[in-house]
Amino acid sequence: MRITHVVRAEEWLSTLPVHYEIFKTFGWETPVYCHTAHLMKIDNGAKRKLSKRKDPELGLGYYRELGYHPAAVREYLLTILNSNFEEWRMENPDSPIDDFEFTLEKMSNSGALFDLDKLNNISKDVLLKISAEEIYEFLLSWANEYKTDAANLLSSNKNEVIKLLSVGREGKNPRKDLMYCEQILEFISYYFDEYFKIVDSYPENIDEEEAKKLLNDYLNTYEHSDDQSQWFEKIRIIASENGYAAKPKDYKKNPDMYKGHVGDVSTVIRIAIVGRASSPDVWELQQIMGEEKVRRRIEKAIHS
Question: How many CB atoms lie within 10 A of CB 156?
């Protein structure tokens, strides 16, 4: 096997003359040497070199354990390895990554800055281009290795999980909520009774007693067969009948006339069903969860 290129860290630069002489002495063809700058990170406001001993993100196992998709990691690495990659990606948003021409000349001489937040943002964009079915298979494979208790739930609820992963991913402004498997599992955990928990509080203007009254009205009018517009119109009616503005703009114009607005009422419903004040579209989630589970969640919130 003939060695044509050697890529190594810049601290080995001082040994280059020795290695060059070895190759010349044996009459071997001298390879091309590339000495790269270190990966850097911000630590307590200062930039320092990434360390194998201190920084787990320097090892591939870190990304496997969290469940980052290889395509996302590869996309991110190219953004820090070649300075022109991001410009190329903007000009070629749908092109395969292998179409990009990687060059040593475009590598940083001062050390690329490693940024996990940027990796997460890139991962959101990458996963948006991957089908929900493929994300499900990747999530299940990860769970089988790192989260075996969740693997059985994912496997036995395949169709529902794929639907959950699909919510809000279409249209002009698709949701970008998915980053890596551990986060994705947490993101959809509300579906499973085994993981469901209330993590957010009701709006400040709604106490527990008021919330239960609103939820009771919602339960009495809930029809699982309602389409999205029918469903939300009922929430508007509940809001109006309980002293809340049917439209946020009405509340904004005359805040003293109302307890709050329809958004506060829908937040109470969202928290009872999903456990969070922010989530994908509640009507769509209810269709996936099924009437029995929705009613059970509401009743539990009323009687807790």
Answer: 9
Structure tokens at 150: 């969740």
Q: In this structure, which CATH number among 1.10.1160.10, 3.40.50.720, 3.30.360.10, 1.10.260.40 belongs to the domain 40-126?
A: 1.10.1160.10
CA distances in angstroms from 23 to 3, 9, 32, listed in the order given:
11, 20, 12
Average pLDDT in the 79-95 region? 92
- CA–CA distances in Å: residue 45 to residues 14, 41, 50, 117, 262: 31, 10, 14, 16, 43
In the block, tokens 């050697």 appear at 6
Residue 259 CA to residue 214 CA, distance in Å, equals 13
182 contacts: CB under 8 Å, gap ≥ 6: 66, 67, 146, 147
Grade residue 9 by pLDDT with cuts at 50, 70 and 90: confident
Beta strands in the chain (DSSP E): 5-9, 32-36, 40-43, 46-49
The Cα–Cα gap between 211 and 207 comes to 6
Q: State pLDDT tens for residues 28-76.
A: 888 888 777 677 777 777 777 777 778 787 788 899 999 999 999 999 9
**Over pLDDT 70: what percentage of the chain?**
98
Mean pLDDT of the chain: 92
Tell me 223's DSSP state: -
Q: Nearest CA to 289 among 199, 161, 194?
A: 161
Q: Do residues 171 and 185 touch, judged by C-beta distance below 8 A? A: no
**Residue 97 or 4, more confident:** 97
Residues 277-287 as b or e (16 or more Cβ within 10 Å = b): eebbebebbbb
208-303 has which fold? Arc Repressor Mutant, subunit A (1.10.10)
pTM of the predicted protein model: 0.84
